[in-house]
Design a protein that fits this description.
Blueprint: H1 20-41, H2 44-50, H3 59-71, H4 75-88, H5 98-105, H6 115-144, H7 148-151, H8 157-168, H9 170-179, H10 186-193, H11 198-223, H12 227-260
Helix pairs in contact: 1-4, 1-6, 2-3, 3-5, 4-6, 5-11, 6-10, 6-11, 9-11, 11-12
Length: 261
């Protein structure tokens, strides 16, 4: 019996041309600069409120204390902290982002003086910060996929089917999945493994995040302390849209098997 030939991977180009270390140095420089901005602009009272821990407190209580202290910060250190946190939120470090958008967009804690200024600041700071985090994913996963064992993932039928689906409308899919608040953005990881070019990747990420953050900030400002309802609704929509195609493909495959049998 002849051995089946390996599945040829579906990728945008045969090899990546990334030089990793300049990005790593630049990314670390930005993170350290944002951290320095928080340290230099936050008042001593802010730090006292952040670390006002007592014996017997749970980590959940301490987390709530940190969120409340962040909300009470002045606009400048809050802006630095907002950018720093979103620059770290990625597939490598999947921290939640909804709470910090609410913390800078709720009327009593808003980073701006009005809804328009708050939405503008959240969008103009948050979108580039998230693009940085996603570009960090781009470089890290590209480096990881250079290793032989991980590169084998490209030779699976599941990957090839997913890559062909992504190749139909890659830019639009990246925009949509950056807009939806999905905990793990599989389309971003798929784009990286597909070796989708960096500049369209950056633009699509920026547009999707700008739409997401401006929408959430505007509605959170209007809803006030009921802004969490928006987060739950968007998450439900994201889960539905991301699983709908999976179930559709599954039932289609089962139907075809039934026809064959």
């Amino acid at each position: 019996m002849t051995k089946p030939e390996p599945i040829a991977p579906v990728v945008f180009k045969d090899a990546d041309d990334l030089i990793i270390w300049p990005w790593v140095l630049g990314y670390l420089a930005v993170i350290l600069s944002l951290l320095a901005g928080v340290l230099l602009t936050a008042s001593p009272e802010n730090w006292q409120n952040v670390f006002d821990w007592h014996a017997g407190q749970s980590w959940a209580d301490r987390g709530d204390l940190f969120v409340q202290a962040f909300r009470n910060m002045e606009p400048v250190p809050k802006a630095f902290g907002f950018a720093l946190y979103l620059s770290l939120c990625s597939a490598v470090l999947p921290f939640p982002t909804s709470w910090i958008i609410a913390a800078v967009a709720m009327p009593e804690f808003a980073i701006g003086g009005s809804m328009l200024s708050t939405v503008a600041i959240v969008t103009l700071i948050g979108s580039p910060a998230s693009v940085m985090a996603n570009l960090n994913d781009y470089h890290i996963f590209t480096w990881m996929l250079r290793h032989h064992r991980l590169a084998k993932l490209r030779h699976t039928r599941i990957y090839n089917a997913s890559a062909k689906w992504f190749a139909r409308r890659p830019f639009l899919l990246l925009v949509i999945f950056n807009f939806l608040p999905i905990p793990v953005d599989v389309v971003r990881i798929l784009a990286i493994s597909y070796r989708y070019p960096r500049w369209p990747f950056v633009v699509a990420n920026f547009l999707g995040r700008a739409l997401r953050y401006s929408t959430i900030a505007a509605l959170t400002y209007q809803l006030g302390d009921k802004g969490w309802i928006l987060m739950v609704a968007l998450l439900a929509v994201a889960i539905f849209l991301s699983t709908e195609r999976l179930f559709r493909l599954l039932f289609k495959r089962l139907f075809r098997r039934g026809e064959i049998s």
